[in-house]
Amino acid sequence: MYNMAPGVITTYNEESKRYTATLSHGTYAGKMLGGTLVTKQSGEAGKPVNQVLLAKKMDLVNEMYFAILLDRASGGPVIIACSEGGTSIEDLAEESPEKIVKVPVDPVEGLTDAQAAQVVEGLMVTGDKEAAKEKGKEAKGGKEAKGGKDAKGGKGVEQGKFIAAQHNPNQFALGLKDACCVEPGCCILSGLGAPFGLTACWTRKAVLDKYAGGMQNYVCFQGYIPNCCCMDTSDMCRGSELGLCLEGCCCPVFSISIARLHLMDSKRIRPDPWDYQIIAFSNCLQLASCILDIIAIFVEEAREAANIVDLIADLVTLSVAGCMGAQINHEIKTDANGIKEHPVVIGIPVAQGGPTPAAEEMAR
């Protein structure tokens, strides 16, 4: 009985009930020598086989795939993990890309607790998951293995993370300023459902299912808010559907923003200037509304103005929330048949009246 795969051959002798391999003529090992090995890595031309490695066949309980590679797009390391290992990881990537977990790691910050948990969940570890996460934390470098802070402090690291996001290589398939025109129906439904937490619950779960391995990887606010007093929010309500519902109902608009940030980190999407201006405008209106409400407590004449600004601020906020929901929905629809990246196109400035770079190259 022979179990063949490109470049890897397993032989089993029915008579001796053992796995065997020999270089004698007529055997697979003999045929491999001097032949041409064609794989997805070698290309159609293939590579000549000058040596054969003989290895003892082990009885495997389970196969997993784990690799740390350099990602040219992000300019840093990326962890690739899959609960289904073997020699045909490329075929699995084409057939079931959702089973493969890709975790870009910031070379300065190192592996975070949330990223270590994401890798462990992606590998579907059945043993001591906490011990596996601790091993991942030891790879952080410069930080304590058990949740210690580095020299910058936790707040500085988080701020640095958001600042570094401006160098991410990808962008949204649909910007907030175009969402109402491209996805009008979804915009309206998302805006109407936002105050009741419906939009938040849907977007959070949709992003988790599509890009983060499902509800088992849910934590309260997905680790984007710092620890509060004695509560460790980085692992609060893990995998809890009730926790997601409470988050969506208690913080309906903020939860949509968390879903959007989670999507941006999963696909390495950089912040869009237009998107941030729209969000900042909504936040400024809410701030102005709060200030007027405080003034109205002491000045009766300001109450009518405060009510008007409250109404305007809420309408703008719900409109922005609707556009966020439409933006997330459009991104998920775009990735329906596989994760698609939308690289940021950067223009090259050309001096007025001067030749273009292409023209100069042709002249040479």
Question: What descriptive keywords fit this protein?
Answer:
single chain, 364 residues, D-amino Acid Aminotransferase, Chain A, domain 1, 3 domains, three-stranded antiparallel beta sheet
Write up what this structure looks like.
With 364 residues, the protein is mostly helical. Helices cover 45% and strands 10% of the residues. It has 13 helices and eight strands. A three-stranded antiparallel sheet has the order 1-2-3, with no helix packed on it. Strands 6-7-8 form a three-stranded antiparallel sheet. Strand 2 and strand 3 (18-19) form a beta hairpin. Helix 6 crosses helix 12 and helix 8 runs parallel beside helix 12. It starts with a strand and ends with a helix.
What's the number of domains? 3
Give unreliable regions as ranges.
1-5, 141-155, 356-364
Instruction: Report the biggest beta sheet as strand number plus sense, adding barrel if it closes.
Output: 3 strands, antiparallel
Query: What portion of residues is helical?
Result: 40-55%
| Overall spatial form | elongated
Query: What is the CA-atom radius of gyration, in angstroms?
Result: 27 Å
The sequence of SSEs as H and E is EEEHEEEEHEHHHHHHHHHHH
User: Which structural class should the secondary elements be placed in?
Assistant: mainly alpha
Based on DSSP secondary structure assignment, what is the total number of beta strands?
Answer: 8
Order of neighbouring strands in the sheet with most strands: 1-2-3
Q: How many helices?
A: 13
- Taking the alpha carbons of the first and last residues, their distance comes to 62 Å
Rounded average pLDDT: 78
**Strand composition percent:** 5-15%
